[in-house]
Design a protein that fits this description.
alpha+beta; Thrombin, subunit H; Pdz3 Domain; 3 domains; nine-stranded antiparallel beta sheet; six-stranded antiparallel beta barrel; 11 helices
């Protein structure tokens, strides 16, 4: 069996070359992966529908020209500027006469590009997180050649979605379609900027739905891709997957290839996931991830035999966390979840796709199969901290680039401290630049004891015109000290 390589289709310009982010998947030995109301984004301009022909007797083809014309004006070229450390070496001849400066590291600019989709007339743009990740500056160029500097509103690495904003009004935009109702065999368009070829449109059909290709290696990673045979190449990342009505049903993200270019398979994030992520980022500045507190997997013949399962469709519960919503609902290892509400669940991807649509505090109904019998359960979903509260991103989180949670009394006692704020979900920001790592517990900032988020806010407000000196400890007991400016 030949090995297939999945490429994140991101074109990165660097010294005249192209760098393509890659991840690997062996088809012969795939890894086992251990609704809520949303903010609506609609164009006030009616979308012109393509002349989709459903009666084969009346036509030999589906007319996609109207959908293509609408799409190219709403898809933008995303260009990013980031920096990369490279080792610098001295000149031996000059060093001999003028003294050796030695060698070290210097920052070099890196240019990258991808695609994005305008989803509102006032300039909200969806793209892939890997297109803009670690960038210092993001610029977008419209199909009419106008260029704007974009503001990063938020990202969700676990779904590979990022939300940008440009200033202005009356932008051409694409309305959201319904990826749930999209059918295998349905015609679609892929619109983007492959190889910096702007406003490129390709056509194909939906080949499969709810694909998990093990490419998002993040905690709580969500994969339920739409697979299509529309040609997608490096530079298409973040571009539009559009149905024949001119509606956005997916964000192009990855390709399956031996070479790094299109060879027949491409994958898009369904708009059902995109809409939830975008809605949360706009409303809260942070994606509201609802946690059930279980480890589940797809069912194969080996697991069916091991657990003596009576059904093969659904997801197998292999583990429940103590005190989790699943545990409180009475869900047990060996149960097979077959439905979320009225929605049938056949695979892990479908399970993730539907669970992500809920928020902490929502109650969901689950149908499970236990020893051949159907059992109904209800669970109240929690956030990652074990509560049902909505997590709102604060100015502190934006500046420091992290989410914080107070440590428990037991953890504080074991570490010999009164308390502190633990750094989780570290991303680009002051803390990462200072060298702080995930798990670090902040105990003191500029001499002020830190026990809760309000203490951190207060300490940073007092330090607005000066430096910040942070003291703390890692879970292994190692104490550490960091400093940075605001």
């Amino acid at each position: 069996m030949k090995r297939n390589t999945f490429f994140l289709s991101l074109l990165t310009g660097f010294s005249g070359g192209a760098i393509v982010l890659i991840a690997y998947l062996f088809f012969s030995n795939p890894k086992e992966n251990n609704s809520h109301s949303t903010v609506e984004f609609k164009s006030s301009t009616p979308v012109q529908l393509a002349e989709s022909v459903h009666n084969v007797q009346n036509s030999r083809y589906v007319n996609l020209t109207a959908a293509a014309q609408k799409s190219v004006d709403a898809v933008v070229h995303v260009k990013t500027l980031s920096s990369r450390q490279s080792q610098s070496y001295s000149n031996p001849f000059l060093d001999f006469f003028f003294g050796s400066p030695g060698f070290g590291y210097e920052e070099k600019p890196v240019l990258s590009s991808g695609s994005g989709v305008i989803i509102t007339e006032d300039g909200f743009i969806v793209t892939n997180n890997h297109v803009i990740e670690n960038s210092n500056r993001v610029e977008v160029t419209l199909n009419d050649k106008r260029t704007f500097e974009a503001q990063l509103i938020g990202t969700d690495p676990s779904t590979d979605i990022a939300l940008l904003k440009i200033e202005g009004n009356n932008f051409s935009c694409l309305p959201f379609g319904n990826s749930d109702s999209a059918k295998v065999g349905e015609w679609v368009l892929a619109v983007g900027n492959p190889f910096n070829l702007t406003s490129t449109v390709t056509a194909g059909i939906i080949s499969a739905k709810a694909r998990n290709i093990n490419i998002i290696n993040k905690k709580y990673g969500i994969e339920s891709f739409i697979q299509t045979d529309a040609a997608v190449n490096p530079g298409n990342s973040g571009g539009a997957l559009v149905n024949s009505k001119g509606e956005l049903i997916g964000i192009n993200t990855a390709i399956a290839s031996h070479t790094g270019t299109f060879t027949g398979y491409s994958f898009a994030i369904p708009i059902s996931i995109v809409q939830k992520v975008v809605s949360d980022l706009v409303e809260f500045g942070e994606v509201q991830r609802a946690i059930l507190g279980i480890v589940v997997s797809d069912i194969n013949s080996q697991l069916a035999e091991k657990f003596n399962l009576k059904v093969l469709d659904g997801v197998l519960v292999q583990q429940t966390e103590a005190g989790s919503p699943a545990s409180k609902a009475g869900i047990e290892p060996g149960d097979v979840i077959t439905h979320i509400g009225a929605i049938q669940i056949k695979t892990l991807s479908e399970f993730q796709d539907h669970l992500i649509r809920f928020r902490p505090g929502d109650e969901i109904s689950l149908t499970i199969n236990r020893n051949g019998k159907t059992v109904d359960k209800k669970a109240i979903l929690q956030n990652r901290f074990g509560s049902t509260d909505i997590i709102k991103r604060t100015d502190v989180m934006n500046v420091l680039g992290a989410i914080f949670k107070p440590i428990s009394k037991d953890d504080a006692k074991s570490l010999g401290i009164k308390g502190g704020l633990q750094v989780i979900d570290l991303e680009k920001g002051k803390l990462l630049n200072a060298g702080i790592r995930n798990g670090f517990i902040i105990t003191i900032v500029n001499g002020q004891s830190i026990l809760k988020i309000e203490d951190l806010n207060d300490a940073l407000n007092k330090a607005t015109k000066g430096g910040v000196y942070v003291e703390g400890i890692y879970p292994n007991g190692m104490r550490a000290y960091y400093a940075f400016g605001l």
